[in-house]
Design a protein that fits this description.
Layout (H helix, E strand, L loop, with lengths): L21 H6 L4 E5 L2 E4 L4 E4 L2 H4 L8 H13 L11 H13 L4 E7 L2 H18 L7 E5 L8 H6 L3 H4 L9 E4 L5 H4 L15 H9 L4 E6 L15 H12 L2 E5 L13 H5 L5 E4 L11 E6 H7 L19 H16 L2 H17 L7 E7 L2 E6 L8 H12 L2 E2 L1 E3 L2 E4 L7 H17 L2
Parallel strand pairs: 3-13, 5-6, 5-7, 7-8, 8-9
Antiparallel strand pairs: 1-2, 2-3, 4-10, 9-10, 11-12, 12-15, 14-15
Helix pairs in contact: 3-13, 4-13, 14-16
The structure holds pyridoxal-5'-phosphate.
Pyridoxal-5'-phosphate (PLP) binds next to helix 5.
């Protein structure tokens, strides 16, 4: 196990940390040095219960032997293979296995290395699809307020988190946004899908009336908005979006980077909600976070629309040096084996009532103004400190880490999303520790 000074760097300056208050962190660093199953080990040798599956990605738990060995075998056998005009067997095997997990005709897979790349890829496929069908005027993309779709220019353009957008100029032209679905006044402390708010999907009709359907390529939403602080869709909302998209020939993209691979107790949110999009973006749980990987799942009709010109011509001028990287494919295949053999998606579903009761037991705790949950994910919203938004949740994060629990925060919302191997005793520990900390945070 990693111990003390041997794993502590003596210079924290050079690394410009992502999505981190660098100076604050470097003055009081939180360093992780080891991981196994449900726990991290901090650089000072403490066990930290992982309440967030890393960053929503380690769904099968940490350092699973099967994945570690598969990656080790692969790196020794073939470290890298180009994916342009060449192929390697595991990439085809993986695509076929993923396609078999998906409902309907979502049966083609384009590999990327991250969720951000998956989103940009899906947006590009949407634009190109309409063009190859002779509807090149459909260039407008529609996202949603509070949406998070990664940090590429496409993703921040359709995304709706203001701090991720405001510094970066005009971004993509011709983007519009649906309203978000958060409604504290009507839905606070709802268990599962909120009752109120499906009508917000009708705003898409307004955007169609404003821009005309012939200019709109695609709508992209997270089925459950994760990074903005766990917003579960109102009952009927996603179905309504699907209907409006169908009426107007608009593609619907579900960004399932968080909801994919068991988080909701089903393989994907599309299955959970019974609404099928035209494309799905994934990452994170696809490879259990072990090796970076993302993907776009595409309906057959979209793929087929590209397969029409002369056979020697590249159909889509898009891809990454590391698309379908052999290590990522090996990690993903081993991950899918674990999900299947251990029945982890069903496990998440079976545990979700226990999870729901546990997190909702925090109702009434100091400063808690809402608790939301679905599958094995929960959001706990705190009343912000006047003039110091985010301070309360950040203090909770620091205190939880000191007491051996990793939580995630965004503004004043705490998100919990443990690995799907979580035991009831871990859930109790998480809620006990977090509850104790919240009582102390002024
Ligand atoms: C819904 C969603 N889309 C896209 C991304 C971006 O993924 P990545 O950080 O792998 O680029 C994330 C990351 O949290 C996400 O939650």
């Amino acid at each position: 196990m990693a111990q003390g000074a041997s794993v502590s760097p003596n210079n924290l300056e050079a690394f410009w940390m992502p999505f981190t208050a660098n100076r604050q962190f470097k003055a009081n660093p939180r360093l992780l040095a080891g991981a196994k199953d449900m726990h991290y080990t901090s650089a000072d040798g403490r066990r930290i219960l992982d309440g967030t599956a890393g960053l929503w990605c380690v769904n099968a738990g940490h350092c699973r032997t099967r994945i570690v060995e598969a990656v080790a075998r692969q790196v020794a056998e073939m470290d890298y293979a180009p994916a342009f005009q060449m192929g390697h067997p595991k990439s085809f095997e993986l695509a076929a296995r993923l396609a078999a997990m998906l409902p309907g005709d979502l049966d083609h897979v384009f590999f990327t290395n991250s969720g951000s790349e998956a989103v940009d890829t899906a947006l590009k496929i949407a634009l190109a699809y309409h063009r190859v069908r002779g509807e090149g005027g459909r260039t407008r993309l529609i996202g949603r307020e509070r949406g998070y779709h990664g940090v590429g220019f496409g993703g921040i353009s359709v995304g709706g988190i203001v701090s991720n957008r405001k510094m970066f100029g005009p971004m993509l032209a011709g983007v519009d946004h649906l309203p978000h679905t958060h409604d504290l006044a009507r839905n606070a402390f709802t268990r599962g899908e909120p009752e109120h708010g499906a009508e917000r999907a009708d705003e898409l009709e307004r955007l169609v009336a404003l821009h005309d359907a012939s200019t709109i390529a695609a709508v992209i939403v997270e089925p459950v908005a994760g990074s903005t602080g766990v917003l579960v869709p109102p009952r009927g909302y996603l179905r309504r979006l699907r209907e409006i998209c169908d009426q107007h020939g608009i593609l619907l993209i579900f960004d399932e980077v968080i909801t994919g691979f068991g988080r909701l107790g089903s393989s994907f949110a599309t299955e959970h909600f019974g609404v099928q999009p035209d494309m799905i973006t994934v990452a994170k749980g696809i490879s259990n976070g072990t090796v970076p990987m993302g993907a776009v799942f595409v309906r057959k009709g979209i793929y087929d629309a590209f397969m029409t010109g002369p056979e020697q011509v590249i159909e889509l001028f898009h891809g990454y040096t590391y698309s379908a990287h052999p290590l990522a494919c090996a990690a993903s295949l081993a991950t899918l084996d674990i999900y299947q053999e251990e029945g982890l998606f069903a496990r998440a579903r079976e545990l979700s009532p226990y999870w729901e009761n546990a997190v909702h037991s925090l109702k009434g705790t100091r400063n808690v103004i809402d608790i939301r949950n679905i599958g094995l994910v929960a959001g706990i919203e705190l009343e912000p400190r006047p003039g110091a938004a985010g301070g309360r949740a950040y203090d909770a994060l620091v205190k939880c880490f000191e007491r051996g629990l990793l939580i995630r925060t965004t503004a004043d919302i705490i998100a919990l999303s443990p690995p799907l191997i979580v035991e009831k005793s871990h859930i109790d520990e998480m809620v006990d520790k977090l509850g104790g900390v919240l009582k102390e945070v002024a």
